[in-house]
Design brief:
alpha+beta; 3-stranded antiparallel beta sheet
Length: 78
């Protein structure tokens, strides 16, 4: 199946941390207090910065765009 935004497996949130299963190897995490996606639920291992304008508050939409960038890069589309 080709990649489409709807193919990303959003697995909900726990203690405010959102989780996306990108594929069998990559799971990404994001919390509204973070300016990045992380490889772990603690946010310590940064993977991708969010694309924010100066003074902009990070939202789940910003996180999803960053998740999409990771997926496209893994598929060789970025």
């Amino acid at each position: 199946m080709d990649w489409e935004p709807g193919n990303i497996n959003y697995q909900g949130q726990d203690s405010g941390v959102h989780r996306w299963q990108v594929d069998s190897e990559v799971t990404l995490f994001w919390h509204p207090d973070w300016l990045h996606l992380a490889e772990d639920i603690t946010g310590m291992h940064k993977r991708v910065p969010l694309d924010l304008n100066a003074g902009e508050v990070p939202t789940e939409a910003h996180a999803l765009k960053a998740v999409e960038k990771v997926v496209k890069a893994r598929k060789g589309e970025a």
